[in-house]
Batch of 2 targets.
Target 1
Amino acid sequence: MTETADVATHQQMIDTLSGDFRWGVATAAYQIEGAATEDGRTPSIWDTFCRVPWAIDNNDNGDVACDHYHRMPEDIALVQELGADSYRFSVAWPRIQPRGRGGVNEAGFGFYDRLVDEVLGRGLTPWLTLYHWDLPQELEDAGGWPVRDTAYRFADYAMLVFDRLKDRVAHWTTLNEPWCSAMHGYVHGVMAPGRRDFKAGMNAVHHLLLAHGLATQRMREAALDSTQFGITLNMSTAEPATESYLDREAARNADGMGVRIYLDPLVHGRYPDDVRHDLESRGAQLPVEDGDLEIISTPFDFLGVNYYFGQQFSGVDEHGRTTGEDGFPAQREVPFGAPTTAMGWEILPGKFTELLTRLSRDYPGLPLYITENGSAFDDEPDETGYVQDDGRTAYLAAHLAAVAAARQQGADVRGYFAWSLLDNFEWAYGYVKRFGLIRVDYPTQQRTIKQSGRFYRDTIRRVRGS
Ligand code: IFM
């Protein structure tokens, strides 16, 4: 079946996403803003990490990115042109609070003040994320997320933003993907700040969750009744590759470290016993102090779900060994054999449905919003800059249908934000990987809506009957 035919087969299912289902697009500050040294912004861990030779493909950095800082009104107009009703963006901590301490930097705040007005002025709903990875460098120098004080610094920063924007922004997300901050940032070393220290990573997990809880508590106390708070987690499915004991153990551990280590304390106020046991056997622990779990489980209103792929695991590596070089039980990801995106991520929309129904089953009563879902492909623009991105369009259609299927099976999914509005700085992959519904030609900064963007716009129009 061709990809176009694929898209048509999903239409009926997608059409069930009617009523007050929310349709959005998402971005993040460092990935699009540029203007790295303007108006008092100080370096974040990403500015520093980008200076490490070859930490980033092509030695790219976010100094200019999509130049969104100077083109913001044009970009918000594009959100409207796509027919979205909501815009998810993040605030750069070192713009608001240079060096991570002290009061508001008025010039930096002014950008978000104008942005929120622009979004509202176009009849769109702003969805604000407080932390999409721009930790002020000085806070990393003081120990970063592995130290407890960073959680308190985050809550102070959150209040600076909240006090100024709470009258106009009703949807607040504390953290984006704490798994990436802790694991890629402090354990695997492939994202800022680039450390490789398992124990530090586990300290980071706990302090990120504490930061979420402290900030949510303080913002809630100062909030209007209609304000909603949430957190966004990146999650996948983790299945055993076979029914063997070792494979089931590998999958259990992956699910524990990817999903339950975050959601169990957030929702149930406790870390899972099996995860604590796994950590102990690795000489690590979560640095829980009295009262922390009450703070972390402060009630919140929605869970943001970022889904890109599903996974299955084996407890035996490719050489038949059951212990990895780190001395821990082997954990090998086993491909399903599905087609992949340019990131090498397998395209598995059915697993998206499984994840969403599982979340609603295991954590009932928590409204879900898809705060990111999307795909990178090697785009080939024509001479006008237009991209006929059949692969991305098919991915989008299949995943929207997967969301609709999850809803039919009882999952309480209330909205979808496509990742991403624009091609942008894809972290360690620099500008090579493109996730945008809109192409950005970086030398000219020209924006061109891709076929996938038109598909998204037409879908929203059709489903809304407008
Ligand atoms: O670009 C990222 C985003 O910043 C966080 N979630 C995954 C996306 C694609 O890798």
Note: The radius of gyration is 21 Å.
Target 2
Amino acid sequence: MLKKIEETIAYIRHEITTNPEIGIVLGTGLGGLANEIIPESSLPYKDIPNFPESTVKGHEGRLIFGKLGDKNVVAMQGRFHYYEGYSMQELTFPIRVLKKLGIKLLILSNAAGGVNPGFEIGDLMVIKDHINLMGNNPLLGPNDDSLGPRFPDMSETYDKKIIRHFTKIARSHSIHFQTGVYAAVSGPTFETPAEYKYIRVLGADAVGMSTVPEAIVARHMMLPVFAVSIISDLGVEGKIVEISHEEVIDAAARVEPKMTLILKEMISKLEL
Ligand code: HPA
């Protein structure tokens, strides 16, 4: 694994001119942040050695290196999902690469179904903790002690200091947001009503199909993580309606400007 990471880093270093300080995974609902980055280099995933090959035609994905405010950032435009058939190790490989490139914070975003009855479609939810229901873990198998410990601590997966920073900025713009627990499932099916209920009973506020593998690998490498969901649909009894991927994307797109505004300001004011 380390050898592969080093090979990938060597390629990337050759192509870029700055050292990124922050890594951002642009999930559903955060694509707009890419337009705010003053780009310096853009590397299609297909040109990066050892990166997973995209399974979605037309969505090739790329790493965008550039400036957001006065910060050097790297954004993953396009993420890899477990339901696409990648192994957990494959889909989290880019996170290991970003950490080794020197990022000091990983920002993750996603669209999720709300299971908390107090939530509404279009809410932002800062992830304060997670439940891994994917039935797999990216750290299964032999551990490379040079990357991180065999049994990583997960008592504070989502960085409290960054959550406070986000809170301050959202409040200064009078932007309302929720805070909650994100349950990760493999997908690709959306949940049955009984499954939504089960997920709520377990203690989650929202459910989605990403983010947790990346957060686990980041914590394995002692990389601070901040993650936020856009609530795109509701898995709440009485409010469950038929949903499609398009509706998830549309709902997320409507909230995107709010999310972009906060994150842009948050990143520019971060002291790393
Ligand atoms: N369930 C799982 N994943 C999701 C959902 C959902 O309701 N909405 C967006 N991603």
Note: Residues 111-113, 190-191, 207-209, 232-233, 235, 248 surround hypoxanthine (CB under 6 Å).
